[in-house]
Amino acid sequence: MSRKNKHLVIIGNGIAGVTCARHVRRYDPDIRITLISEESAHFYSRTALMYIYMGHMTYAHTKPYEDSFWPKNRLELLQARVESVHPKEKVLRLKGQESPFSYDILVIASGSRPRMLPVPGSEGPGVQGLYHLQDLERLEAMSPYLKQAVLIGGGLIGVEWAEMLLSRGVQVHFLVREKHFWNTVLDAREGQLLDRHLREHGVQLHLETEASEILRDATGQVSAVRTSKGELLPAQLAGISIGVTPNIDFLEGSGIVCGRGVRVDALNRTSEADIYAIGDCAEFQEAPAPGRKTLEQVWYTGRMQGEALAHTLCHPEDPSPYKPGPWFNSAKFFDIEYQTYGDVPAELRAGEQDLYWEHPEGKIALRLLFSQEASSDAVPRFLGVNSFGWRLRHAYFDQALRAGYPITRVLEELESASFDAEFSPRHAPKVRAAFRAATGLAVREPRKKSFFRFLFSS
């Protein structure tokens, strides 16, 4: 990239766009960089919205960088709405501005937006998602009179909704159309663990239930939600958590090829010259790694794409494709932490088997996925793990998946693979015992260190 007199414009100031801008500036002190966002003047941590509402943080606490960071690094911030993109002219049209906004290189990092509910009464106040700062502001505005809420759609955002509202004494009904919570990701045993946990925290969980209508009073405010089972649930809020979709409507008519998201190759290049896409809005033509999807809408994948693209833009002779490695993710369901490593499906596929172990108290569980070998002499290979209430070490499981560790090795090293120094020594032997009973395979117990070996070991 020729440095001087070039203008890099990034649409979006989320984790993907900001990471790209930061790294380009690190490589290139001369290029002009502008980030355009309608949502907020500064980058903030989107995952912290719930903690603002719960009173644990303020908006200022969610900004990773001081406001002085941007001018100091000559990163121009423009709060505006991009209405259209014109690749041939290399300009953008911004809402309320007559003059076009020109660019030399364009990065689309416009993120995603909540899917809305296609039922009668869903348009209007009191029906919203929880994704943007403006969503939080609308929720805060209605909170003084908010007594009852119906959450629609089972997923991570739905649990965040529930925890937030319960912290303010709001009665919460949670509609999940499947037989158990998050059944597209978790199997029945894992889902039932979380079903129990949500109910223990005061969530009124309605399984195999959907919303069929949003009712409103004479003033147009939400008054109730009618369910697919005919129940009428009083509510002043219908919180939508049925997933997100790439925020790309403004690209219509631009000529940029889109599918579910903006179609990109391994270098995040779109169909148009000098235009790239990263983060939630980018849809890869091919999955970037085994066990991964073409559309990855997780914060760390946006960060990694931003880093890779910055290197490619500034080092075209040595481009850096997006290589995310084995899949991982984490979340929190009230006070149960969840981690996943590898492609662990809700239902087993051909050639796979698993071991599910759950503590009798129902707050800690592991589900280990491993290969089903044709030969009885072959040791099954470790394929992935879901953990609940049991912290695992990312570095260990990333290496185990990359190197193809045998499942027996992972089990034998479970103590060192765990982050919970207090819990893993107590629970790991029970997991190994369950594995032996289920498979008949030999798994050794770790050798206990003597006092002197412990004292002098590194």
Automatic annotation (TrEMBL):
Pfam families: Pyr_redox_2. Keywords: FAD, Flavoprotein. InterPro entries: FAD-bd_OxRdtase (IPR050260), FAD/NAD-bd_sf (IPR036188), FAD/NAD-binding_dom (IPR023753). The keyword Transit peptide does not apply. Its cofactor is FAD. Residues 7-297 form the FAD/NAD(P)-binding domain. GO terms for molecular function: oxidoreductase activity. It comes from the Bacteria. Gene3D superfamilies: FAD/NAD(P)-binding domain. Belongs to the FAD-dependent oxidoreductase family. PANTHER family: NITRITE REDUCTASE [NAD(P)H], PYRIDINE NUCLEOTIDE-DISULFIDE OXIDOREDUCTASE DOMAIN-CONTAINING. This is FAD-dependent pyridine nucleotide-disulfide oxidoreductase.
